[in-house]
């Protein structure tokens, strides 16, 4: 997997929080995510425009992607070397519960900002 940048981002949408038990921490993966053995990879259509991949054997989250393949992200936990990453952006901040707060100074994007950036509509 090649990274689009050294940017670490977080998503606070209800689907990410439900799927992972908290906000998603992910990196953008240019060109998608490739696996040695794809036989155990299952997908979940999480919206009209996006899907999530996971291991059907162990349940590990593997990727989030737009169905048009123009954007892929992979969970932080899949990377061996995380030391060069910088926490840059938080999305769906208007969906974030009030019981936690990251103190890093990041770009903050609401649901409307995200949908506009990806050209998606609900």
Please explain how this structure is put together.
By secondary structure, the chain is mainly β. The protein has a single domain (2-118), classed as Metal Binding Protein, Guanine Nucleotide Exchange Factor, Chain A, CATH 2.170.150. The chain is 12% helix and 39% strand. A hairpin with a 4-residue loop joins strand 3 (41-45) and strand 4 (50-55). The longest helix is centred in the last third of the chain and has 8 residues, at 111-118.
For the record, the count of structural domains works out to: 1
What is the fold-level CATH name, i.e. the topology?
Metal Binding Protein, Guanine Nucleotide Exchange Factor, Chain A
Shape: globular
The structure class reads: mainly beta
**Biggest pleated sheet:** 8 strands, mixed
Q: What is the typical, i.e. mean, pLDDT?
A: 89
Strand content: 35-45%
Just give the CATH class. Answer: Mainly Beta
Low-confidence runs: none
Gross CATH architecture: Beta Complex
Order of helices and strands: EHEEEEEEEH
Terminal CA distance:
30 Å
Number of helices: 2
C-alpha Rg, in Å? Answer: 14 Å
């Amino acid at each position: 997997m090649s990274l689009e940048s050294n940017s670490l981002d977080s998503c606070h949408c209800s689907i990410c929080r439900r799927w992972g038990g908290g906000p998603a921490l992910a990196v953008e993966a240019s060109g998608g995510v490739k696996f040695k053995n794809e036989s155990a990879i299952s997908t979940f259509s999480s919206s009209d425009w996006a899907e999530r991949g996971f291991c059907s054997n162990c349940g590990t989250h593997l990727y989030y992607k737009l169905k048009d393949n123009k954007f892929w992200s992979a969970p932080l936990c899949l990377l061996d070397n995380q030391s060069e990453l910088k926490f840059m952006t938080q999305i769906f901040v208007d969906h974030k519960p009030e019981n936690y707060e990251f103190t890093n100074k990041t770009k903050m994007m609401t649901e409307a900002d995200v949908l506009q950036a990806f050209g998606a509509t609900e």
